[in-house]
Write a structure and sequence with these properties.
The structure is a single chain. This protein is α+β, with helices and mostly antiparallel strands. It contains twelve helices and twelve strands. It has helices at residues 4-15, 21-28, 32-44, 56-59, 76-84, 113-120, 152-159, 175-186, 192-199, 203-215, 247-255, 281-291; strands spanning 49-54, 65-71, 89-97, 101-105, 127-140, 219-224, 234-242, 260-267, 272-278, 298-312, 315-318, 321-322. Helix 2 packs across helix 3 (32-44). It is globular and about 50 Å long. The relative contact order is 0.17.
Length: 327
């Protein structure tokens, strides 16, 4: 179980994923050596990683898709494991409710979408049917989800090392930046010295490249920890059907809800997908019956409750932790 100091450190990293150990120590009022030891322990225990969330247009042509998979009786586990190995699959989970398996996929090129959705996914043994929704716009993503544990003064200290993106043009990403994107995606806290050695650049050049990449929003560092480790033991993907005039308003309200890890407006039979985390069944019941009730235009909803997470943001999971590195 994570300790209170562990949770405070994770909350601090959610605000400033690349904050120096010294800044983290100042904000948490502990020694730098203590912060360093905790970081190493959480990483060695495969609980925490700081990665880089790559902007969609820098990763692929076209937006991601939500995919719901129905399987033959008894085949959900094997089918989910096979689907999780597809390189386009960002997230794969066994679920109960609307589907047996839920996927979030991002295809590098639009031309490959039909093959993935119409042939490769249905061709996996045990898959009986599929349904997909195209993401049109994301209103919030996992890098914005927070543990609300720190005071305003602590947040001010951490904000000194926050980089606020100011937008970018995906067509204006140079070759060195593209190589750096790969490094930051795997290690959101990589230093200029480490990046310079990997890229064959000077430390000063690597530092400028990192700052430019972060400032332009090409990569957004974020903390990856399974929600169950943080006390959120129930996760669900909720597809809502909404009258057209209310879609934007409802999506905006859902994006501000404390449960929201990923809220998107989609094209398909649904209008908005809310991927949320809850501490228990009562909290989820309150969301469905109380928080959704006053929102206008909702005509239907379908819920898929996560039973087992196999892959999230291209990283394999195992029993609520990161799986050991695979060959």
């Amino acid at each position: 179980m994570l300790t209170e100091p562990d949770l405070d450190l994770i909350a601090a990293l959610q605000i400033a994923p690349r904050a120096s150990v010294a800044t983290l120590a100042e904000a948490l009022d502990v020694s730098a050596s203590t912060v360093g030891r905790r970081l190493v322990r959480l990483e060695e225990q495969r609980i925490l990683r700081v990665i880089g969330q790559v902007e969609w247009t820098a990763r692929a042509r076209g937006n991601p898709r939500h995919v719901w998979v129905t399987t033959e009786p008894g085949a959900s586990g094997s089918a989910a494991q096979a689907l999780a190995r597809f390189p386009e699959v960002q997230l794969a989970a066994e679920t109960a409710g609307r589907s047996d398996v839920y996927l979030a996929v991002h295809v590098p090129d639009r031309a490959e979408t039909r093959e993935l959705l119409a042939e490769r996914i249905p061709g996996v043994p045990g898959v009986a049917g599929t349904h997909s929704e195209l993401v049109l716009r994301a209103l919030t993503r996992a890098d914005s989800w927070r543990l609300h544990r720190l005071s305003e003064d602590q947040q001010k200290i951490l904000s000194r090392e926050q980089v606020v993106p100011d937008g970018f043009d995906a067509d204006d990403v140079g070759p060195d930046e593209r190589r750096l994107i790969g490094l930051l995606a795997g290690n959101g806290r990589i230093t200029a010295a480490e990046a310079g050695r990997s890229l064959g650049l000077s430390q000063s050049t690597a530092y400028r490249l990192i700052q430019s990449t972060l400032r332009r929003g090409i990569v957004r560092p974020r903390v990856e920890v399974e929600p169950a480790q943080l006390g959120y033991e129930l996760e669900a993907v909720i597809a809502l059907t909404i009258t057209p005039g209310a879609i934007q308003a409802v999506a905006g309200e859902l994006a501000r809800h404390p449960s929201a890890r990923y809220v998107s407006i989609v094209a398909g039979t649904a209008s908005v997908i809310h991927q949320g985390v809850f501490r228990n069944e009562d909290e989820m019941a309150d969301f469905l019956t109380r928080d959704l009730a006053p929102l206008p235009g909702i005509t239907a909803l379908q819920v898929s409750v996560v039973l087992r997470m196999l892959r999230r943001y291209w990283l394999y999971r195992e029993d609520g932790r990161f799986a050991p590195d695979r060959p």
